[in-house]
Design brief:
Layout: H1 18-37, E1 41-42, E2 48-50, H2 51-57, E3 67-69, E4 75-78, H3 83-94, E5 101-110, E6 122-131, H4 136-152, E7 158-164, H5 165-176, H6 179-190, H7 194-202, H8 208-216, E8 221-222, H9 226-233, H10 240-255, E9 262-265, E10 278-284, E11 292-296, E12 310-316, H11 317-324, E13 333-338, H12 343-355, E14 359-364, H13 371-375, E15 380-384, E16 392-393
Parallel strand pairs: 1-5, 7-9, 13-14, 13-15
Antiparallel strand pairs: 2-4, 3-4, 5-6, 6-12, 7-10, 8-9, 10-11, 11-12, 15-16
Helix pairs in contact: 1-4, 4-10, 5-6, 6-7
Length: about 400
């Protein structure tokens, strides 16, 4: 092995050391329990999928896919997201069951990095998919669930922004006329480059009225009051139904008692091209990127030969941990230090403590070079050293 690569990892890959692993496990477990309480059942999919199915159907750019060949010459990919593999399963094996289907997952996904920029190429997502339901009630359910899940994980300081990709696309297409021009303009929104958006609009060959409508589009961020402003920007009825869906969603969030958690941002767009309707992102104060996102994708299952409405979300565990900071408490570990003549006694005592639910480390005192350093690692130390009756707890 070359010494140059002895301790190196592939671009974007990270090690997870015990402390971080414990924090991830605690957060994951709290969210999993909440999802199960809402009736979602967990599922696993293969790490490897065929490029011709999941790889090409996913909304991830081709250059971000990890590709390899199997022994038969088929191109495989490391799964780049979880929504597409679950859509494959639903279309092939589950849609014969009673619908809607409520599925959940916790899994690592893989997206290749072109250059080192601090972004991981492998990261864990936990999320849900509600498949077979076209109603706004399903959208309200997953939004209420993501709020509840984040709160169960210990996060209170976050903002949830809701948009509608269908409205944005129809609005732009009506004014700009071609998909290419729509894509060029929405790229500024995806990058949150509002200065670039304004400059791009000013340079378009459009009437002053249409330019002003595009500039006023940036004002569509806030509370329920922006619904009326959005309707006023429409040239005809096209897109009005999408706005009414958002109004209906807001009323449903009120029924959940969560209307204060929801803000609208109709400038919200996504690089995930399979979204068709309501979509949302969650931001927390300490993190510069969305810690979670989701939305409706009614056309994805068509790529697997089925027709079904669907909506869901994914939470980025690494970003959630960053938002939580040091607020996660992991259960403490105790240590029993023993000498050889009291080994059996130490083993039996450790078993009793473990059966009661405690975490216990057994350590032969002859293997400890620095007692002070050892004791600092644990909540408490029990010494079983020398003759029986000399145990000391500190």
């Amino acid at each position: 092995m070359s010494r140059l690569f002895m301790f190196e990892k592939p671009l974007g890959m990270r090690d997870t050391l015990p402390e971080l692993f414990d924090r991830k496990r605690v957060v994951r477990a709290s969210i999993e329990k909440e999802m199960e309480r809402w009736g979602y059942r967990f599922i696993e999919t293969p790490t490897l999928e065929y490029y011709e199915t999941v790889g090409s159907a996913s909304a991830i750019l081709d250059q971000q896919l990890f590709k390899l060949l199997d022994q038969q010459g088929h191109t495989l990919v490391l799964r780049p997201d979880m929504t597409t593999p679950i859509a494959r399963i639903a279309a092939s094996r589950l849609l014969k069951k009673d619908m809607p289907i409520r599925l959940a997952y916790a899994a690592n996904v893989f997206r290749a990095q072109q250059k080192e920029g601090g972004s991981p190429a492998e990261f864990e997502q936990i999320g849900v998919e509600c498949i077979g339901d076209y109603t706004i009630s399903a959208d309200a359910e997953v939004i209420a669930l993501i709020i509840s899940s984040l709160q169960e994980a210990g996060l209170e300081d976050f903002k949830l922004s809701v948009g509608h990709i269908g409205f944005a696309h129809k609005f732009f297409l009506k004014i700009l006329g071609t998909e290419e021009r729509v894509e060029a303009l929405t790229r500024f929104l995806f990058e949150k480059n509002y200065v670039g958006y304004r400059e791009h609009v000013k340079g378009l060959a459009l009437s002053s009225i249409d330019k002003q409508r595009l500039l006023d589009f940036l004002k569509l961020r806030g509370g329920i009051e922006i619904i009326e402003l959005a309707v006023s920007l429409l040239e005809n009825e096209e897109g009005k139904e999408d706005i009414l869906q958002l109004h209906q969603l807001f009323e449903m969030m009120g029924d959940y008692g969560l209307e204060e958690k929801v803000k609208f941002d109709l400038t919200l767009v996504s690089h995930m091209s399979y979204y068709t309707g309501i979509l949302f992102e969650v931001y927390a104060g300490k993190v510069g990127f969305p810690i979670a996102s989701g939305g409706r994708y009614d056309q994805l299952l068509q790529k697997f030969g089925k027709q079904a409405g669907a909506t869901g979300f994914a939470i980025r565990i690494d970003r959630l941990l960053e938002a939580l900071g040091d607020d996660i408490e992991s259960s403490a570990v105790s240590c029993i230090l023993f000498s050889p003549e009291r080994r059996k006694e130490a083993f039996q005592h450790a078993q009793e403590l473990r059966r009661s639910g405690k975490k216990v480390v057994l350590q032969d005192i002859n293997g400890v070079k620095d007692i002070d350093n050892c004791t600092n690692q644990y909540e408490d130390i029990t010494f079983l050293v020398g003759n029986a009756g000399r145990e000391t707890e500190i």
